């Protein structure tokens, strides 16, 4: 049994970029789909496809710019053993705006800047740049 499926997803993405894979498969969940949709919207991956065989899973199409990964770092912030929550006024920037946070809020999963604009805080899932 996996204790942190989101960390597993982020590790699979990181490892796929390190071997220059075109796509990576992760098990399906609503949270993972929301995170993948944000990565597509922010331009770090090119697409997400849901597939169903024995189990449903997501196929993430990775993006490269001139042979270099579009995503330089993806880091899990809040873990099951150590949750990290931020208030609406405490949501900071990542690398002076070059990166972003993914935050789960009462209004759904969104980037840190979207949460700031919506005036809500929540649990910081990961930071990306």
From TrEMBL:
Q: What is the lineage of its organism?
A: Bacteria, Candidatus Magasanikiibacteriota
Instruction: Give one GO term, molecular function aspect.
Output: structural constituent of ribosome
What protein does this entry describe? Small ribosomal subunit protein uS8
Annotated function: One of the primary rRNA binding proteins, it binds directly to 16S rRNA central domain where it helps coordinate assembly of the platform of the 30S subunit.
Q: Which Pfam families match?
A: Ribosomal_S8
What residue stretch is flagged as signal peptide?
Answer: none
Which organism is this protein's natural source?
A: Candidatus Magasanikbacteria bacterium RIFOXYC2_FULL_42_28
Read off the PANTHER family from this record: 40S RIBOSOMAL PROTEIN S15A (PTHR11758)
**Keywords in UniProt for this one?**
Ribonucleoprotein, Ribosomal protein, RNA-binding, rRNA-binding
């Amino acid at each position: 049994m996996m204790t942190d499926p989101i960390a597993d997803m982020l590790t699979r993405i990181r490892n796929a970029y390190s071997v220059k894979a075109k796509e990576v498969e992760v098990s399906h969940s609503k949270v993972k789909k929301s995170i993948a949709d944000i990565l597509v919207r922010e331009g770090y991956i090119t697409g997400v496809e849901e597939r169903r065989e024995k189990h449903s899973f997501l196929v993430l199409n990775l993006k490269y710019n001139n042979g270099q990964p579009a995503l330089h770092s993806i880091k899990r912030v809040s873990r099951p053993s150590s949750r990290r929550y931020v208030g609406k006024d405490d949501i900071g920037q990542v690398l002076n705006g070059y990166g972003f946070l993914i935050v789960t809020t009462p209004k759904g999963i969104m980037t840190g800047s979207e949460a700031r604009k919506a005036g809500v805080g929540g649990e910081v899932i990961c930071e990306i740049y």
